[in-house]
User: What shape does this take?
Amino acid sequence: MNQTHQELWAVCREFIKDNLSAQQFDTWFRDMTSVSYADGELKLLVPSVFFIEQIEVHYLPLLRAGVKKVYGPGVHIEFLYPIKKDDPQSMSFQKGSEPSSSIISQGKTPAANPFVSTNERDFDPQLNPRYTFENYCESESNKIARSIGVAIADNPSLKTFNPLFVFGPSGVGKTHLIQAIGIRVKERNPKARVLYVTARLFQSQYTAAASKNINDFFHFYQSIDTLIIDDIQDLQNMPGTQNTFFHIFNHLHQHDRQIIMSSDCAPSEMEGFEARLLSRFKWGMQVELERPDIKLRRNVLKLKADSDGLLLPSEVSEFIATNVTQSVRELEGVVVSLVAHATVLNRDISLDLAKRVMSNAVKIKRHQVNFEMVADAVSSHYGINPDLIFTKSRRREVSDARQVVMYLAKKLVKLPLSSIGQKLDRTHATVIHGCQAIENRIPHEKKLAADIDAIEADIASR
Assistant: This one.
């Protein structure tokens, strides 16, 4: 019995789900549905144009793999997204933009081919135009590496840092830095033969060359002026490829060509490599990219918000910068996920939403919060004397502030209601009423919700 297009998509979704984290799947694919499948064309409905852009940039290879596995080869994917009309009950659909269609049908520009004649100097250097020095934020954690990169790019004849070996954990900006060097070199000298290639791609090209013409392979790579190889550690335990790279390395170095490599660890910590190759990795400059410090994390968030035209409240930005500490990539991922949730839920980006989005993505740093911190933060936010909260005053501003203290003491300090009452000289019933009053008002009063978000951010930063 033939499966319906919905059943086929359900199988495809399971494949995608098995290859993503729960948060990634829930954010980008949970609400994606199949509209139709006929004559080799699959139409998928997504919530907005924003989703189309993000899927194309980050998840298109996985989506293609799933579609090929379930539907077969040669399937064309078309995205649709809803457009609300004046009548809230009606709903029409609009196709994804033309760039979306062309990206899906044509794919990325193929890598430079080492088996094609290199008489022409122009070929695709495989550099991502987004990875420039202009949008590479600087702080103490990457200042040295960035300075060396700029020096190489601005003065290619300078061979003090040849080879340049950049190492550090995943997501700290290695790929961005080494491609920024290549982009700057091409800007300074458009005729320069610059090539960015991953170690995995180099390995696959070498394997193909071994059964074709290895001389063409050598000739191509020996003609490069600036060779940039990412994730060089992936050549571990590949003696044939290492031997080939050893000879290419020697030729380029002897002819004053720049070699730039990245790795997740320093040469001294690499295993599964020939000693003679490791010694060459150490010839020039080894520089470490450390995990981003707080200044860099703040700068990255500001740059991300500015470039995407996002309104990222300061308390949200500070909360993310304080808690997402491992990598720049993780920071950017949190912002993308935050925007996606805000779009789907039709909500403004707030501290509460940020906490919800990040709850399963990162380990939130927590510090001990006590009742006095809550009372002080509330009184400071509302500009009233802290002592007034503990009096019998029934002035509206004091009464409201007191109820906020009750609500936050229950939520953040986890104090029993009776203990909150004792501290404020109020009855248990009064505290129950105060907490319920705030809980009932928050969904309907944006200012109150914003006030509480700001107060929580203030307490978190203390």
Strands lie at 33-38, 41-45, 76-84, 91-95, 164-167, 194-198, 226-230, 258-263, 285-288. The mean pLDDT is 81. The two ends are 63 Å apart (CA to CA). The first strand starts at residue 33 and ends at 38.
